[in-house]
Write a structure and sequence with these properties.
With 429 residues, the protein is α/β, with parallel strands linked by helices. The chain contains twelve helices and 18 strands. A hairpin with a 2-residue loop joins strand 3 (41-45) and strand 4 (48-52). The longest helix is centred in the middle third of the chain and has 21 residues, at 154-174. Bound molecules: inosinic acid. Residues 12-13, 38-40, 126-129, 131, 133-134, 222-223, 227, 236, 238-239, 272-273 line the site of inosinic acid.
Length: 429
């Protein structure tokens, strides 16, 4: 039985929540392996709407949730999310959630530094979520992070805070931001420790047992390949690797156990935050896609930039992310448009490129090259079989498959969980 990893194939917000929720109902364990509470999933179950940022989605389906070592955990955000879903009737306990003892923590000083730096960047800001993700990953790589296991050792915490504050207070003061007091931070962490530690364990051991027992594991990616710190539109990216390979290193399991890699892409394209977006539409069609697609960030509340489907970009994500099948979402948002464009490459300095160049200047200068396809007047909303789709919609999906060099294995036609056309069960490999 294959496991499944789900990753975004564009710039995030591809509708992973619905697909992950659908797959979670068929899995035994759901694992987050990178990112932090910068992610945002909205899940509708019965008459409850759950907004999750850090908790693995499978929890709402009664599945075991695991937060891997590759995630950066803000303990205060974690506890408040647990309290929030608890108030909605979903009890998250150490029996239903396990957290890697090796996961680094996000502290209030990380969020403060994130925001102070963004303010200092001015026009050149990245448009981060301001939640301290980048600074927390920096501390991990710099070997000064406080990790979950450290919460059990007050003396270690105290020493680590000294080292952290030497670094962060200097930076914060230089940026004109308020600095942090060591004693106050220590008290905050010591107060949180007894609430967080019951969830902590070496999750790799549990995953190894689950794998050997043939349990179905779903790896739930956050953000997307074009926000990957190596493969994305650097520096306008998040600070983790978002490709499927990270499911292995970010949870402590071998690469062969990751299983089938499902990429999620919208039938058009959106982006929050700053950075290159070659197929962006700043005209009435862009506004229409945003209005129809309800394109507002779950975490940031910001309006998303919208544009045509960029097949060259998704093809690149397929290659570097190891995507074996694509789930195409929000096809219905395109209903009624007279014609549709698909980006098939870029023109740069007279040359034709089939991939996005690496430098930010070249990415910004790359002009999209389009192929035009006929639209469809009929509604595809709620279609549950291939036969329910108008011929031009089938043609559009088939053309995407050819251009991105991956099969569309799942098609979603409305926010409802059951309005999904399944071509292949990812758990069957
Ligand atoms: P950070 O992850 O907060 O450092 O933000 C870096 C970039 O990633 C910014 O452009 C954010 O808008 C973007 N980003 C982070 N998380 C998400 C997400 O869940 N969906 C879409 N964009 C995201």
């Amino acid at each position: 039985m294959a496991n499944v990893a789900v990753i975004g194939a564009q710039w995030g917000d591809e509708g992973k929540g619905k697909v992950v929720d659908w797959l979670a109902s068929r899995a035994d364990i759901v694992v987050r392996f990178q990112g932090g509470h910068n992610a945002g999933h909205t899940l509708v179950v019965g008459n409850q709407t759950y907004k999750l940022s850090l908790l693995p989605s499978g929890l709402v389906r009664g599945k075991l949730g695991i937060i891997g070592n590759g995630v950066v955990i803000d303990p205060e955000a974690l506890l408040s999310e647990i309290a929030r879903v608890g108030a909605q009737g979903l009890a998250v306990t150490p029996a239903t959630l396990r957290i890697a003892d090796a996961a680094p923590l996000i502290l209030p000083l990380h969020a403060a530094l994130d925001r102070a730096r963004e303010a200092a960047r001015g026009e050149r800001r990245i448009g981060t979520t301001g939640r301290g993700i980048g600074p927390a990953y920096e501390d991990k790589v710099a070997r000064r992070a406080i990790r979950v296991a450290d919460l059990a050792e007050p003396a270690t915490l105290s020493d680590k805070l000294d080292e952290l504050l030497l670094h962060h207070n200097t930076l914060l003061a230089g940026l004109g931001a308020a600095t942090f007091d060591r004693r106050e931070l220590l008290q905050r962490l010591l107060a949180l420790a007894p609430q967080v530690l019951p969830f902590a364990e070496p999750v790799w051991e549990r995953l190894d047992e689950a794998r050997r027992a043939g349990r179905r594991i779903l790896f739930e990616g956050a953000q997307a390949v074009m926000l990957d710190v190596d493969h994305g539109t650097y520096p306008f990216v998040t600070s983790s690797n978002t490709v499927a390979a990270t499911a292995a290193s970010g949870s402590g399991i071998g690469p062969a156990a990751v299983g089938f890699v499902l990429g999620i892409a919208k039938a058009y394209c959106t982006r929050v935050g700053a950075g290159p977006f070659p197929t962006e539409l700043t005209d009435a069609t862009g506004t229409l896609l945003g209005d129809r697609g309800l394109e507002f960030g779950t975490v940031t509340g910001r309006r998303r930039r919208c544009g045509w489907f960029d097949a060259a970009l998704v093809r690149q994500a397929v290659k570097v992310g190891g995507i074996q099948g694509l789930a195409l979402t929000k096809l219905d948002v395109l209903d009624g448009l007279p014609e549709l464009k698909i980006g098939v490459g870029y023109r740069l300095d007279g040359a034709l490129l089939r991939r996005l160049p690496a430098s930010p200047q070249a990415q910004a200068a790359a002009e999209p090259v389009y192929e035009t396809l006929p639209g469809w007047p009929d509604s595809t909303r709620g279609a549950r079989s291939w036969a329910d789709l108008p011929a031009p919609a089938v043609k559009y999906v088939r053309r995407i498959e050819e251009l991105v060099e991956a099969p569309v294995t799942l098609l979603s036609t409305s926010p409802e969980r059951d309005d999904t056309i399944l071509m292949r069960d990812p758990f069957e490999g």
